[in-house]
Amino acid sequence: MRRSRTGVLALLLPAVLLPAACGVRPSGVVEVGDPALVQTVPDAAHGGVAVYLKGPDGVLPVIRDSGGKASSGRAVMMLLDGPRDVDRAAGLTSEVPGYFGAMGAEVDGTTVRITVFRPVRDFSAVARQQMSCTAAHATADSGAVKVILKGNDTTLTLERCPF
User: What pTM value is reported for the model?
Assistant: First the structure.
């Protein structure tokens, strides 16, 4: 008897559910407005800079207010300060060693020279990319910028920022 009840229920279920779908017709895509806009490029004219931090899939730009005119030196100083609490809460870190000493930044055409008074040979590849992207994107022509990092142990020509 048990098998016959299960069989009857199996036959009745599609018959009960089929009418429930009546009246629902397929439709195409319905347009509901413009896509959302998010600022991903800093507004340098108003003091915005991109500081590149380490995320789960590589370096990512974090837009910050520099409190004045944006410059490579100001952007690198913000990077050297390290990630903020909100950055850490979002899972962002930095491989750039913390540094609170004197620093110099000079822009000459398409070259940015950053000078720190500490060894730089030990900077990881991620730390070098963070420095390169942060310094390059604070200039007007970030795509054609070469970044040179000088420490008290060596001078490194950093790879161009891939972004």
Answer: 0.70
